[in-house]
Design goal:
Number of helices: 8
Strand order of the largest sheet: 3-2-1-4-5-6-7
Order of helices and strands: EHEHEHEHEHEHHHE
CATH topology: Rossmann fold
Helix content: 40-55%
């Protein structure tokens, strides 16, 4: 009997692969038998992760690349096709935030740093669009392929402080829905585009916002926990089942959707 959830031998590309969530995905898909190619800007972190995967007996390839550098992405495209001959799954995991694009409690919208806001939108939105434009070309020629965009809880419910990040991630969800129709209608039902909205997971980018130097929770973190029915932050590995479902044939008739993985945060109110 065919395993609908299998990703064995699929060529899986992951941008932002050296981050907390991305590296967890790299390990997972490699362990599931996929041929994993992952991107990151930090060569030291990238080669370290590549070595870890190979030492575990699985296959991966690290390519240093900035998701906003189209020329470099096109070089990677050629390298991947020359080596593997196809691209089956693209996970747009690169993203992030920066202080100037946030509005802390002692500031207002009039204090927003538009330069920082633009950089955050570029990284999260254009950093999704550019890899999609480059790597989905192979999918259009194959008449099949899967794109999974990483959105955010802030794309669904505007959260205080994260003005730039939430705006960009909301745009990513809209782009996901648009692209689902665009690709399927012009290149066939074998192309699927979906997004995942993680709730609150501790990563290097939000750690200082959610934890104190001694590891205890900040007031913001405590507020989040109170509004999360599960009463805790998510663990990176708790995203993997959803990612596997979307990457595999188990979701063959699913496109243009946003899957929320948040311990109930979005569903809860008092």
């Amino acid at each position: 009997m065919k395993n609908l959830f299998s990703v064995k031998d699929k060529v899986v590309l992951i941008t932002g692969g050296t981050g907390v969530l991305g590296s967890c995905m790299v390990h997972h898909f490699a362990e599931q038998g996929a041929k994993v190619v992952f991107f990151g800007r930090n060569p030291e972190a990238g080669h370290k992760l590549e070595s870890e995967v190979k030492e575990s007996g699985f296959e991966s390839l690290f390519l240093q690349a900035d998701v906003l550098d189209r020329n470099r992405l096109e070089e990677c495209y050629d390298e991947i096709l020359n080596r593997f001959g196809r691209i089956d799954v693209l996970i747009n995991g690169a993203g992030g935030n920066m202080q100037g694009a946030t509005i802390p409690p002692d500031k207002t919208i009039f204090d927003l740093d538009l330069g920082a806001f633009e950089k955050v939108v570029d990284l999260n939105l254009y950093g999704t669009i550019l890899p999609t434009m480059v790597f989905s070309l192979a999918m259009s020629q194959q008449k099949e392929g899967v794109i999974i965009n990483i959105a955010s809880e802030s794309a669904i419910r505007p959260l205080t402080r994260v003005c730039g990040y939430g705006t960009a991630k909301a745009a990513v969800v809209n782009f996901t829905q648009y692209l689902a129709g665009e690709l399927a209608s012009k290149f066939g039902a074998g192309l699927r585009v979906n997004a995942v909205a993680p709730g609150f997971f501790l990563t290097e980018q939000n750690r200082t916002l959610l934890t104190n130097p001694d590891g205890s929770y900040t007031e913001r973190a405590k507020t989040i926990i109170v509004h999360t029915p599960f009463g805790r932050f998510g663990k990176p590995e708790e995203l993997l089942g959803t990612m596997q479902y979307l990457a595999s044939d188990a979701s063959k008739f699913v496109t243009g959707t946003l899957l929320v993985v948040d311990g109930g945060f979005d569903a809860f109110s008092i």
